[in-house]
Amino acid sequence: MPPVVVARDLVKKYEDLTAVDHITFDIKRGEIFGFLGPNGAGKSTVIRMIQCVSPVTSGRLEVLGMEVGAHPREIKARLGVAPQDNNLDPDFNVVQNLTSYARYFGMPKDQAVRRADELLKFMQLEEKRKVMIEKLSGGMKRRLIVARALINDPDIIILDEPTTGLDPQARHLIWERVRQLKREGRTIVLTTHYMDEAEQLCDRLVIMEHGRFLMEGAPRRMIADVVGDCVMEAMEADDAAERYLRSRGQQVERSADRLYVYSNECRAINQEFRRLYPDVYSTVRTATLEDVFLRLTGRGLRE
């Protein structure tokens, strides 16, 4: 089965700024594909090109077998987009925001109402059907934006930073709905700067920085390849403790107040370390995508 998105040597420039710098990727039908990285990494720029709202500077980009520059109208009709900004219409209530949006796709009114009711139930908003937008919480607004993205039964669903600023309960509800959409065979393109979100949801992802790909693959495979099974942290360790850990031949990083040891044998290392340095607090935890990102990019702040 051919990929639903094909990008080859893709570039996007804004005058002297290169926002996307010669990237190549495929997105398979039925997978959740993520773009992970900090603000300004180029994630949303890639999404805007896939949406056909920002022209490609150079390279090739095809969506659903169509070149974005030649078939923007046909591509847009088959996409569902949940932008990171709240662009709901404050003059309409909840259900009207869905039914009015359905008109862009030529949907008959009775069909639009039925579809809107289905989606409100799917996103647990049916009790807010007649509520005005200003009365909704932030989590409810995000759920409504996701529901709106599904109104046209799209082939590809684009979720741009879908849970930014939400509380844990709202985040997890959206995660559950994203997983359900995948089970239905939907293709989902996700951008996020939350490492745990990408690890929880994505089948495959790319880590971006400064418009380039640092790494691509399945989350658990990336963690295993870059970090290992686990991470040991030693808080406020002195130079002698650091020399000891490095003498074990392990990957060791120092931050302002702690050492990070990356290994598949953290528990054994930590047991011996505690015997030799009982006054240094240390702990072992499971490795995460955040460890991968920090290993690839460093721990310094980026402006």
Q: SSE string, helix = H, strand = E? A: EEEHEEHEHHHEHEHEEHEHEEHEH
Question: Which architecture name of the largest domain does CATH use?
Answer: 3-Layer(aba) Sandwich
* Structural class category: alpha/beta
Mean pLDDT: 92
| C-alpha termini separation | 41 Å
Q: Looking across the biggest beta sheet, what order are the strands in? A: 6-7-8-3-9-10
Strand content: 25-35%
Fourth CATH level, the homologous superfamily of the largest domain: P-loop containing nucleotide triphosphate hydrolases
Brief sketch in words of this structure:
The chain is an alpha/beta fold and 303 residues long.
Plain-language structure description:
By secondary structure, the protein is of the alpha/beta class. The protein folds into two domains: 5-223, Rossmann fold, CATH 3.40.50; 228-286, 2-Layer Sandwich (Alpha-Beta Plaits). 36% of the residues lie in helices and 27% in strands. The chain has helices at residues 43-50, 72-76, 94-102, 109-122, 138-149, 168-183, 195-201, 219-226, 239-247, 266-276, 289-297, and strands at 5-14, 17-27, 32-36, 58-63, 66-67, 79-82, 156-160, 187-192, 204-209, 212-217, 230-235, 251-254, 258-263, 282-286. The chain has a six-stranded mixed sheet, sandwiched between helices. Helix 3 (94-102) crosses helix 4 and helix 8 crosses helix 11. The mean pLDDT is 92.
